[in-house]
Amino acid sequence: MLHRIASEIVEVVRATKVEMALVVGGGNIFRGVSSSAKGMDRATADYVGMLATVMNAVSLQDAIESRGVVTRTQSAISMSQLAEPYIRRRALRHLEKGRVVIFAAGTGNPYFTTDTAAALRATEIHAEIVLKATKVDGIYDKDPHKFSDAKRYERVTYLECLQKDLKVMDSTAFALCRDNKLPLMVFDLDRPGNIHRAVMGEPVGTIVVSE
Q1: Which of 179, 196, 178 is nearest to 187 (CA)?
Q2: Are 133 and 189 in contact (CB under 8 A)?
Q3: β-strand 205-209 against 184-188: which pairing, if any?
Q4: Tens-digit pLDDT profile for the chain (211 aa)?
Q5: Strand order across the 184-188 sheet
Q6: What's the CA gap between 47 and 30, in Å, rounded?
Q7: CB atoms inside a 10 Å sphere around CB 211
Q8: C-alpha span between 141 and 151 (Å, rounded)
Q9: Hey, where are the domains in the chain?
Q10: What b/e sequence results for 138-148 when a residue is b if at least 16 CB atoms lie within 10 Å of its CB, and e otherwise?
Q11: CATH fold of the domain at 1-127
């Protein structure tokens, strides 16, 4: 999975010259709200989860750079041997130079999800859109894994998401995107080539817009 994602990112960078910034999670290793964290202090568990995101970020960086694309990892938690500290202006400069920037350690604070980190970083660097890669091919009116008649939306507004109680992302991240009129696309990461299709604006998932 790591190498497939890296290959797709490199393909997008070389084919489109799009400035790409990535936010990685750590759920494959540890989640602060998971059953594996039962009995731990929530803040402590969240910090462990942040460390997991750094492990994933450094691994992804290596996979991308082994394919010839220059990458920089910035961590919200200081660990100079592995990553740069998160500095907004430096991140923007890296993007201008054509480097892929990977944001690790979430926001650096407990009680905030990777979704919130993605929305925050996207807002800070003035991204055109947030692409949320998940295990489903868009936003549904109910869980498509449980209900065969689940309806998938191709385009929906933030207001409709609130009115219909659609579970797009956590409320803090959702509010950040909505308040800053930042479009959001939810698409299936498991289908090869979808990252490129999403960047090119093809209808591979559901797009959420202000109006």
Answers
A1: 196
A2: yes
A3: antiparallel
A4: 899 999 999 999 999 989 999 999 998 888 777 776 788 898 999 999 999 999 999 999 999 999 999 999 999 999 999 999 999 999 999 999 999 999 999 999 999 999 999 999 999 999 999 999 999 999 999 888 889 899 999 999 999 998 888 988 888 999 999 999 999 999 999 999 999 999 998 989 999 999 8
A5: 130-134, 184-188, 205-209, 155-157
A6: 10
A7: 6
A8: 6
A9: 1-127, 128-211
A10: bbbeeebeeee
A11: Carbamate kinase (3.40.1160)
Tell me the two tokens of residue 26: 């750590």
Per DSSP, the three-state class of 131 is strand
Closest to 118 in 3D by CA, of 176, 64, 43, 47 = 176
128-211, superfamily in CATH? Acetylglutamate kinase-like (3.40.1160.10)
Chain centroid, CA 78 distance in Å: 20
DSSP run (H or E) holding 104: strand 100-104
